[in-house]
Automatic annotation (TrEMBL):
Domain of life: Eukaryota
Topology in the lipid bilayer: Single-pass membrane protein
Primary location: membrane
Residue ranges constituting the Trichome birefringence-like C-terminal domain according to the UniProt record: 1-216, 314-602
Organism per entry: Anisodus acutangulus
Name of the protein in question: Trichome birefringence-like N-terminal domain-containing protein
Keyword Nucleotide-binding on entry: no
Family (UniProt): Belongs to the PC-esterase family. TBL subfamily.
InterPro entries hit by this protein: TBL (IPR029962), TBL_C (IPR026057), TBL_N (IPR025846)
Domain Trichome birefringence-like N-terminal: 260-313
Listed GO CC annotations: Golgi apparatus; membrane
Amino acid sequence: MMRNKSLAFVGDSVGRNQMQSLICLLSQVEYPVDISPTLDFNFKRWKYTTYNFTLSTYWSPFLVKMEEADSDGPRHDGVFNIYLDEFDKNWASKINDFNYIILNSGYWFSRLPVCYEKNQLVGCWRCGLKNITQLPNYYGYKRVFKTALKAINNLENFKGTTFVRTFAPSHFEGGEWNLGGNCSRKMPFTSNEKTLEGLDLEFYKSQVEEFREAEKEGKRKGIIPLHHTSKWYHATNLPNHENSSTYHIEDMEIKIMDDETCDISIGEWIPNPDGPYYTNTTCWAIHEHQNCMKYGRPDTDFLKWRWKPKGCELPIFNPYQLLDMMRNKSLVFVGDSVGRNQMQSLICLLSRAVYPIDDSISPDENFKRWKYVDYNFTLATYWSPFLIRMNETDADGPTKTGLFNLYLDEADDKWATQIEEFDYVIINGGHWFTRCSVYYENNQIVGCRYCQLSNVTDLPSTYGYQRAIRTVLRTINNLENFKGITLVRTFAPSHFEGGEWNKGGNCVRERPFTSNETSLEGLHLELYTIQIEEFKAAEKEGKKKGKRFRLLDTTQAMLLRPDGHPSRYGHWPNENVVLYNDCVHWCLPGPIDSLSDFLLHMLKLEGRRSHEEKLQFMNQ
């Protein structure tokens, strides 16, 4: 996740303590090299060369400009002049190039600061100087954080993310730090044994208040600070804050319940009053035939559900997390129009953060490319409904849906010759294999699916589908220069009832199924089973070659959403369209948005999985 990125810890020695902890944890994989531009231990920089990851520390105990006025002072721990409205240039002038900043401070404010604002003395805390107003030490602390966060908000060239790491309380007992206090406990507190109180509580509240103000201002400027609340004490007496729309760092990990294994592919749809996260008026990427609100769909309850895996929580998609994880990377959707539907959903979800520019190299709408300039992230789609080489020999065919020649042992060059440059490839397909097709292997006809040609063996559509998926995954395994990750997105069932798609079938339900109301069966089950079998075989072979395959298993989730299709609300009533009642594609916004929840979860896990597989490959 930190490949080609940089992180800096800014603050006091507890921040440095945290950074040294991180270095020790990372030492399980690699030790960094010291690339510090100075010999000063307070300003260190390391580089993890394999990953081009830079880690730095800027020691700034007050975060603002300060000078030591007396190295001894009334309590023999110094007297410091701190300029509450002037940030410390030692860090503020250096962070523009960093992707992540972790800001912390606190302990030095228990020393004896003399506070200045606008270069005028405004007071001090226990400084022992005559005729100077005595201030509580959290007076300066609150203003310091205001100044530091304002400085970051005003940095025009800083495009990174700021983490405000909240105050970590000390635990002196029997006296203060310089008066015999000690910490000799050998067990953690339980949550009912300790609460946040006194000065620790004041410091924490000051941080949270200033964070929220900076966050609000930062959103107006396109800066996204992240805040992780303190977990060092159980703070039962903290003030309640309104729910924030910020994407918190807690969302970075999926939460797994005790004694249960988290399989995100199995679960139920539960109410989500916060949805949807965009509309057809805020996102331009919605295909006309999936723009259900535009064409008069009267109900909106289908927008108010989220996927809840059995035994764990799947966080709602966070656009900033995905964009940051995909910085300097690329992702392509390869497959049919349901894959394109998923990609357009992703663009709409990301639109809450930023829109891409069209970077397509062709005017063909089936081969589009977008770029998120601020993140150097490329998103593309290659439409290939059969995934293999094909040509249409009859636009009408026996069932008025065309007749296609499918070359089951040849991948479609339109995507197979292009994907080596991509970091992630999402493969999907299935719906087109129910059409009338003639099957070729080794350039010889081996059979067909309802082609009604004389002397040609009629084969089930699953015959062609299994060989096509096998060919696709084998092709990827044989691409020498492809170093990316292949995600096989499993089949999303259609929901025609009362007839097939071209024989009056429709989908008019307005609520999801529960898992005990329906099950995967018939052709849908066969297609899903084929995908799983071929995925496992390709994954096994890929491990021998250093290739990485992942299963994006969303079939169960989409099976339970008969209410999420456009039906007749993908066009005007009098329009002449091929698919009048569309129970294949998905309304936008709609249930397909949850597939991005799945995708982001898998990307979060990818760093660990890729490292483990790399070690296995090297040890073969």
